[in-house]
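User: quick one, sequence for these tokens?
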């Protein structure tokens, strides 16, 4: 498409404030050109096993159970960069209510929903395609963003339809994050409180995603190939599926598991562990069966400036393992991603020594 025509279509789409769901509700049968993605020649395979499912039962009471979990977390973080957890302490009823809350927000009355549509930083934002005007192509999803920490939102800033469950769920995720950072610290041979004290759990924000039914899923993507520019991600996905990770140069599925949460290593954990733990690229396929919802909770900061720098942890370095990255702030790292990585490339390459 000519640039002028693309920009015109992007603006027309944005100004509806109805997102991709608005296109589907209007009865389109063809995916608009601004959503067309270049063909990915990477193979999709069922050959390799999927990321492991790790059971957190009794990790606080049984030292042997905790040791097994720490070993599993270490292996998954080195090999896949992804794993799923069950018996994590968040009741299944809350998980189900949160999925219903995401669905309810996006399927509520359009005039109510449109009041939250914005691209200006706010405690709660609804929009479609955060990189609508800069990405190679738009993605087949609508999103909301909720900033939870270090500055929690006021209840009145959140939509009534999901206000209560959003606060309840994210408070539970914040507690779970402390446990996960303990396990990751131990997996690195460090004091259990090391990563938390280092600042990895200071920030938390969440994206609720709605992936409408797509008439031509082979032409577009729900989420482009990318890695997460945070420390750690905790994802709640529904039963529809579509999440894939890049493993051994092939796409493999991360199938939905009842009652499970998906955990993945972010770029900042790879940076501070000096490549011991891996932040891997992942994507979400578009589907033509039924809408998909998810909520991804990110341990990192967004729209909160800080001068604190992060670099490879000195306790993990040696003559045989010198630092591979220079120090950076979260703000600088995220800015580089937002302005220089339109194709989903990780900013990590830019910070290599």
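Assistant:
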């Amino acid at each position: 498409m000519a640039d002028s025509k693309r920009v015109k279509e992007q603006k027309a789409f944005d100004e509806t404030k109805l997102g991709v769901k608005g296109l589907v509700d209007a009865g389109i049968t063809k995916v608009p050109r601004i959503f067309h993605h270049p063909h990915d020649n990477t193979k999709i395979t069922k050959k390799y096993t999927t990321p492991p499912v790790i059971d957190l039962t009794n990790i606080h009471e049984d030292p042997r159970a905790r040791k097994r979990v720490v070993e599993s977390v270490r292996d998954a973080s080195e090999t896949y960069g992804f794993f799923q957890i069950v018996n994590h302490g968040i009741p299944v009823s809350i998980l189900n209510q949160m999925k219903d809350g995401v669905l309810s927000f996006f399927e509520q009355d359009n005039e109510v929903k449109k009041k939250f549509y914005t691209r200006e930083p706010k405690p709660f934002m609804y929009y479609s395609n955060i990189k609508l005007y800069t990405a190679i192509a738009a993605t087949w999803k609508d999103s909301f963003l909720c900033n939870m920490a270090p500055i929690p939102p006021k209840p009145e800033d959140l939509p009534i339809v999901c206000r209560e469950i959003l606060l309840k769920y994210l408070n539970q995720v914040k507690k779970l994050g402390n446990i996960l950072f303990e396990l990751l610290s131990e997996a690195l041979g460090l004091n259990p409180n090391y990563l938390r004290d280092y600042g990895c759990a200071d920030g938390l924000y969440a994206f609720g995603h709605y992936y409408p039914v797509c008439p031509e899923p082979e032409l577009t993507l729900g989420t482009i190939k990318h890695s997460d520019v945070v420390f750690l991600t905790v994802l709640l996905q529904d039963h529809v599926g579509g999440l894939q990770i890049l493993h051994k140069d092939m796409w493999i599925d991360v199938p939905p598991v009842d009652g499970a949460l998906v955990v993945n290593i972010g770029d900042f954990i790879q940076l501070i562990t000096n490549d011991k733990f891996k932040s891997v690229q992942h994507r979400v396929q578009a589907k033509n069966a039924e809408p998909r919802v998810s909520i991804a909770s990110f341990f990192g900061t967004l729209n909160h400036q800080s001068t604190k720098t992060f670099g490879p942890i000195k306790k993990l370095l040696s003559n045989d393992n010198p630092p591979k990255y220079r120090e950076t702030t979260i703000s600088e790292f995220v800015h580089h991603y937002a302005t220089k990585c339109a194709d989903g490339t990780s900013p990590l390459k830019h910070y290599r020594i």
